[in-house]
Prior knowledge:
Distance between the termini: 13 Å
Oligomer: single chain
Mean pLDDT: 87
Radius of gyration: 23 Å
Amino acid sequence: MPDGRDPVPSSPTENANSGRSETALSGPTEKCGVVGVSLTERDAARPLYYSLYALQHRGQESAGIVTHDGFQQHDHVEMGLVGDAFTEDDIGSLRGSAGIGHVRYPTAGSVDKSCAQPFTVSFRSGALGLSHNGNLVNADEVRDELAAEGHAFTSDGDTEVIAHDLARNLLEEDLVRAVKRTMGRIHGSYSLTIMQDDTVLGVRDPEGNRPLCIGELDDGYVVASESAAIDTLDGELVRDVRPGELVVLQPDGEGFDSYQLFEREHTAHCFFEHVYFARPDSVIDDKLVYEVRRDLGRELWEENGIDTDVVMPVPDSGRAFASGYADAAQDDGATVEFAEGLMKNRYVGRTFIMPTQDERERAVRLKLNPIKSTVEGKTVTLVDDSIVRGTTSTQLVQLLKDCGAAEVHMRIGAPPIAAPCYMGINMATREELIAADRSTEEIRDEIEADSLGYLSPDAVAAALGEDRDDLCMGCVTGEYPYDIDGEEMDSAHADNPRPEL
């Protein structure tokens, strides 16, 4: 892998408007939302605030914004939801037409303000802010190296590792070469928004594991985890940031420069972004998430269809899958009816994100209530996006049977989640994953469904329109894009060598 000192073009390749193993990883594994904005004149704080609202589904633990007014950096980072983390006075104090923002949820390590982002560093060459979505698999190694050089760390997160490494490189290199050196040193998944003084950057890891896109506004440009944030600002999606690409937003908001710093034969796009995390109205890697989920539902009928009286989604994540499943069933002449049979209490947060098992179990009953007239005496196909621990599925099957369902058949729009994720999603440990050591029939017995059907990995790739070699499906197959200490089936792409870590 290049060490960052290879020649970098003096001009950009594109100017868009020139005019763990379960014990191996000690730091937090994060699934977050990032955004960066560069505008012509107006302050960036309010557009960043609105963007974070649009990305709230990606993290509910902390929110933060850092801006730069051309002379100095301003920041506000707080625990809690976006609406609670900022007051009108906070927004007013964040001056400057350039800035970055972040929403976070933690899956390990510290749950406190020390790991909240954006992370900021002041050093001899200026001020640096950094927001990170993803997870480094060599964070401990790089942290130890930097600590030996005298760098002092205030958190156990891997974002601070990236910030310190980049600050070190900026002392010796120009901006583009410094970013390339850092990208050559860190390994894992990352989409970054970075601000050096008043210059905003977007970076996507060479495998493109985490999403990042570029949008054009009337008076500037934005980079964000999902296009829904661009829509919120009345902007236009330009394109996705390419794997291994650095995008530099021009400080006057007039355009952006692109530098393709690394290239791989294969990508490692996270399939679970399309299955669960991303908003259905977002476009990721040129695909509308809603339509991908409907296609996954159609594939689910083709592989595991069963003709029942009613098809109903687990709201909200199963809705598009169930819609596609029911359409495919009706196209095949099945008499199934699509119906909303579970009503959601929208004042209860995601059970997946809740940090303890007890809280997740308690939240299911608070969150969902069956509609008796839709369920009573009917055979029901219940469609969900995934089964992780199995707790929710067990309770939902019981809810429907208690409400008088004659049969409850579970259909899942993803393959069995059988292994942990090291790329930035809290997929729990193998001990907690119901599919880690159970067959589909054993899981069916566990959740007490009348039948259970999953989608195959090949069907997922077909629905996404991608080769399986270009997808990260480590949580399904146990094959990871990098060599992971303690995992036997890693470096899945034999013809696309990754560094051994």
